[in-house]
What we know:
This protein is an alpha+beta fold. The chain contains five helices and eleven strands. Residues 140, 142-143, 156 line the site of magnesium ion.
Amino acid sequence: MPETSNDKNVTTKARFLGKQWDVVRKIKAAKALKPDILILSRKEQDLVAKDFRDKGWAARYLWGPLNLMYEKFLLNRLTGVTNIPQVIGLEDYNCLLISRIDGEEIKKHSAPISADYFDKLLQIADKLHARGVLHLDLGHKSNIMVDKNGAPAIIDFNSSLYLPPNAFFRPLIRLLAKVDKYAILRLKIRFRPQDSNPAEKKRIENFLRLRKFWIFDKLLRKLTNFISEY
Ligand SMILES: Nc1ncnc2c1ncn2[C@@H]1O[C@H](COP(=O)(O)OP(=O)(O)O)[C@@H](O)[C@H]1O
Ligand SMILES: [Mg+2]
């Protein structure tokens, strides 16, 4: 664990994987069921630790390990997909190490978003869906990043769903994939309004209207609200 635990841009040292790392940034989660996030750097390598070790016992021993195992399982389904974090390993059963996306969250990105950014983001989403992974939290602007080359990246597979991409589940995957695709199109309207045509806007309005009647959407929202409150 870091020797001190200040937030944001304070370099302290911490031991991970048996080596000393600079803690470039620590995002100390205020919520009981969220991990602390540590951005680590050593020589040419950067890592991210999702760490439940300083949390209360329920998060440390129950929720955290389950949560991280699930995220690890999902990320392993996505090995080789570019601009998705890769699993580096476990520091402990309640501390997961993943590769760092060198960039910033789209909501904090001040430079203009490039014209092909959202097409590339849709291509990444297609790759996730082809492997049976539905992100389902792309509406959250802190889960989509702009890397140092201006390309999109997707993080945070905590609220995601995996369905085996076989003939039986494929129709359901196609249906649920719309949740991700419409979340991306909504972001496109927000960040690149000049590229969004009225037909696209209409499709999103219709989708949102339809979604209100879908019972699973209400349940999913209740569940994610419950999780993010704790
Ligand atoms: N692999 C990563 N590369 C770069 N930054 C990351 C990475 N994973 C997480 N972060 C940073 O930490 C924040 C919180 O991580 P996230 O995985 O979204 O957890 P949660 O939203 O559940 O707290 C992100 O919004 C991002 O700023
Ligand atoms: Mg997140």
